[in-house]
């Protein structure tokens, strides 16, 4: 079935954070949602609920768990059990709930730059955050295990990972994930892995590996957070889940959620089921379109003086090096909305969302050329 990702969409006036928070003269390429219509299978599932005309409390069907289990088995070679799954209203609340389970060792470590909720989760729970910069030498992005070991304290009880990495777009390989696993086991850290971008791998030579799938030891000391929301463009609906094999950790996590974060509602249940059950043909075509956008952006950016970009292995988010002190504010003057590196505890970069129609991306390139000419 053909999908037209070039089809123009009108999001202004729809209550979109991405499009309605900025003035109309700004081309918004900041917030991490896409400008493509979600697949018909998701729209049809939601329309069925609308047509039902009764919007009461929902009970998750067994099929939802079966679909999740099947997805992780076939796509990520991870065999999980139904009782390990905790349904959530969103992935971000799952990060914050994770930080709230720590008792005797309340500090949380993460590597930066990273999606800001990974370093804000500990603070919102009243705990310390230990930030360790990635090794970004030679255009790479590697965890600096020597610095991590130096900075760890007796109060450190958790490491938070974002894989695939946001904002850099790295897909961590098995060797590095095994080293992280050993680091967490050696230091008795719960490993929380945000894997929301796992179905958006652009580099065909890379594969997503859930760190908890590597061995039983780290599986038993992990919280893995997943959702179809980024891939099928349903982030505004919410709907996420945690996979927590260890019953003691799972009980603490559920206690942290109780009364504060609800389980999935019916809209979320139906959209998650439709995405995983019927959305694969759409996802495959999306990846082709995003890869073409990425390759175009990479070529154009690296021909603009003052800018440089390394290839993204995953996500629709480009991490672009810039010689301006505050590129976010600077580019707003030219009509382009991007995310500044400071939001991710980085510097010298900005993040640009290329999950949009090629026509918008071409406009963005035109603005960048003008701004840096």
Q: Report how far the terminal alpha carbons are from each other.
A: 42 Å
Name the CATH architecture of the largest domain: 3-Layer(aba) Sandwich
- The pLDDT mean sits at 97
> What count of helical segments does DSSP give?
13
Number of strands: 13
What is the name of the CATH class of the largest domain? Alpha Beta
| Main sheet characteristics | 7 strands, mixed
Number of domains: 2
> Which strands sit side by side, in order, in the main sheet?
2-8-7-6-5-3-4
**What is the fourth-level CATH superfamily of the largest domain?**
Type I PLP-dependent aspartate aminotransferase-like (Major domain)
What coarse outline follows from CA principal-axis ratios?
A: globular
- Indicate the radius of gyration in whole angstroms: 20 Å
In the CATH hierarchy, the third-tier topology of the largest domain is known as: Aspartate Aminotransferase, domain 2
Element-by-element helix/strand order: HEHHEHEHEHEHEHEEHHHEEHEEEH
GO molecular function: cysteine-S-conjugate beta-lyase activity; pyridoxal phosphate binding
Organism: Jiulongibacter sediminis
Family: Belongs to the class-II pyridoxal-phosphate-dependent aminotransferase family. MalY/PatB cystathionine beta-lyase subfamily.
Protein name: cysteine-S-conjugate beta-lyase
């Amino acid at each position: 079935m053909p999908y037209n990702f070039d089809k123009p969409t009108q999001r202004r006036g729809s209550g979109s954070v991405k499009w309605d928070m900025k003035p109309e003269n700004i081309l918004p390429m900041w917030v991490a949602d896409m400008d493509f219509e979600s697949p018909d299978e998701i729209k049809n599932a939601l329309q069925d609920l609308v047509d039902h005309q009764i919007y009461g409390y929902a009970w998750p069907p067994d099929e939802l768990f079966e679909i999740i289990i099947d997805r992780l088995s076939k796509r990520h070679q991870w065999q999980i059990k139904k009782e390990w799954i905790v349904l959530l209203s969103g992935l971000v609340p799952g990060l914050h709930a994770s930080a709230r389970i720590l008792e005797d060792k309340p500090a949380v470590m993460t590597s930066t730059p990273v999606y800001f909720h990974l370093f804000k989760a500990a603070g919102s729970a009243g705990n310390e955050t230990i930030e360790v910069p990635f090794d970004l030498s030679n255009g790479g992005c590697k965890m600096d295990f020597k610095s991590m070991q130096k900075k760890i304290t007796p109060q450190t009880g958790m490491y938070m990972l974002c894989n695939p990495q946001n904002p850099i777009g790295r897909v961590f390989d098995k060797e590095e994930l095994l080293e992280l696993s050993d680091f967490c086991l050696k230091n008795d850290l719960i490993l929380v892995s945000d894997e929301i971008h796992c179905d958006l791998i652009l580099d065909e030579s890379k594969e997503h590996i859930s760190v908890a799938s590597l061995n039983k030891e780290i599986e038993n000391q992990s919280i893995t957070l997943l959702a179809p929301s980024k891939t099928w463009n349903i982030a505004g609906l919410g709907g996420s889940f945690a996979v927590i094999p260890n019953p003691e950790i799972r009980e603490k996590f559920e206690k942290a959620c109780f009364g504060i974060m609800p389980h999935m509602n019916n809209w979320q249940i139906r959209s998650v089921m439709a995405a995983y059950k019927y959305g694969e043909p759409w996802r495959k075509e999306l990846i082709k379109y995003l890869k073409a956008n990425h390759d175009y952006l990479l070529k154009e950016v690296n021909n603009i003086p003052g800018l440089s970009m390394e290839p993204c292995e995953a996500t629709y988010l480009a991490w672009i090096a810039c010689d301006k002190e505050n590129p976010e504010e600077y580019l707003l003057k030219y009509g382009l909305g991007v995310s500044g590196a400071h939001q991710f505890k980085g510097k010298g970069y900005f993040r640009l969302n290329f999950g949009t129609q090629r026509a918008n991306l071409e406009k963005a390139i035109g603005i960048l050329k003008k701004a840096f000419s």
